[in-house]
Specification:
The chain folds into 2 domains: 2-291, Rhopdopsin 7-helix transmembrane proteins (Up-down Bundle); 308-363. The protein contains 11 helices and 2 strands; from the N terminus they run H-H-H-H-H-E-E-H-H-H-H-H-H. It has helices at 2-8, 20-53, 57-84, 93-126, 137-159, 182-216, 222-256, 260-276, 280-283, 287-291, 293-362, and strands spanning 164-166, 172-174. Keywords: Cell membrane, Disulfide bond, G-protein coupled receptor, Glycoprotein, Membrane, Receptor, Transducer, Transmembrane, Transmembrane helix. InterPro entries: GPCR_Rhodpsn, GPCR_Rhodpsn_7TM, OGR1_rcpt.
Length: 363
């Protein structure tokens, strides 16, 4: 408790920062991730279970990836309340540490399993017979245990430090320190090199060789090539968009953030990059559509149904518009005919009255 109080009252955390981005952009993104990510990941977990049941080692990696996303999604209501209360944490420090670990470690668990998916596809397509023992259910379970164990040990490092601080408005700030503390520099360099740079190098190496093999293969069907291409592009996009900006800014902060002046300058762009990592929980289920042939066929069938549905609606709307135009034209035509007949009748009446007047004058 004394450590917690000392941490809260530490003068090094009294940077005056504009947290407006937390009250405007963050709630919108968090609500979108909750509303889309939760059902999408539940469905993805079901498809992953089917693959595990079919003894497909790829399903093990995808299930673990989904579990990591769901754990993060379950922490979002707490973060949503936090940002809506102007960055004031109303729960205890243990809950702050748990939510903080789920927020940050989900990034590296997701990166680890995305990397496993790419290496598994590399071994399956480039070396289908040479490393068959690495593509078994047992090997997948061992690798998954190593990834979770590594991240749990990293999380323990955070649990040994107090995560509460106090801003000039007397708000209890959770899992944020401005300027950055000394112990954060080493963990940030480790995150960048071991948690991001190495995996993305392995991913790019795997997919470059996959592209070469698929391009040269004469027996691979066109649909299969398209499926592999979509899997590669979706994985690379998740890495580049969701994780790239955050890790670049983590290194920049570690190198240059020495005082509150730099912290205030980089605050908005850093937190925007952190917000991009949340989209990972929405993007990951897309991999299920391309990682397995049966799931890919279901996805293409669903896509075709959606296209047909909207095409039919468009055609129906167009037909309705044409009928309405024709009806309007017919109505206008009838109106013109009635008007013409009325004018002709009035003209005849005028001529008759003129003749009668002329006859009366002659008499």
């Amino acid at each position: 408790m004394a450590n917690e109080t000392a941490e809260i009252e530490s003068p090094s955390t009294n940077c005056t920062l504009d947290h407006a981005i937390h009250q405007t952009l963050f709630p919108v993104v968090y609500i979108i991730v909750l509303s889309i990510g939760l059902p999408a990941n539940c469905l993805a977990l079901y498809y992953g279970y089917l693959q595990v049941k079919a003894k497909n080692e790829l399903g093990v990696y995808l299930c673990n990836l989904t579990v990591a996303d769901l754990l993060y999604i379950f922490s979002l209501p707490f973060w949503l309340q936090y940002v809506l209360q102007h960055d004031n944490w109303t729960y205890n420090e243990l809950m702050c540490r748990i939510c903080g670990v789920l927020l940050y470690e989900n990034i590296y668990i997701s990166i680890g399993f995305l990397c496993c998916v790419s290496i598994d596809r590399y071994l399956a397509l480039v070396h289908p017979f040479r490393f068959h023992q690495l593509r078994t259910m047992k090997a997948a379970l061992v690798v998954s245990s190593i990834i979770w164990g590594k991240e749990i040990l990293t999380s323990y490092f955070f649990f040994t430090h107090g995560e509460f601080s106090k801003d000039p408005d007397s708000h209890i700030v959770c899992f944020e320190h401005y300027p950055m503390k000394d112990w954060e520099h080493s963990i940030n360099y480790y995150r960048f090199f071991a948690g991001f740079l190495l995996p993305i190098c392995l991913l790019l190496f795997s997919y470059c060789h996959i592209f070469k093999v698929v391009r040269k293969s004469q027996g691979t069907q066109t649909k299969k090539k398209v499926q592999i291409k979509h899997l590669v592009l979706s994985t690379v996009l998740i890495f580049v968009i969701c994780f790239g900006p955050y890790h670049v800014l983590v290194v920049i902060r570690s190198l240059f953030e020495k005082d509150c002046v730099f912290a205030s300058r980089i605050f908005n762009i850093y937190h925007f990059s952190l917000l991009l990592t949340s989209l990972n929980s929405v993007a990951d289920p897309v991999l299920y559509c391309f990682a397995n042939e049966h799931t890919y066929k279901d996805f293409m069938r669903f896509k075709g149904s959606c296209v047909s549905f909207f095409s039919c609606r468009k055609a129906t709307n167009l037909s309705y518009e044409l009928k309405r135009v024709e009806a309007t034209s017919e109505e206008n035509g009838r109106s013109r005919n009635v008007s013409s007949k009325r004018e002709a009748s009035e003209l005849c009446e005028h001529k008759v009255s003129a003749n009668e007047s002329s006859g009366n004058g002659t008499e």
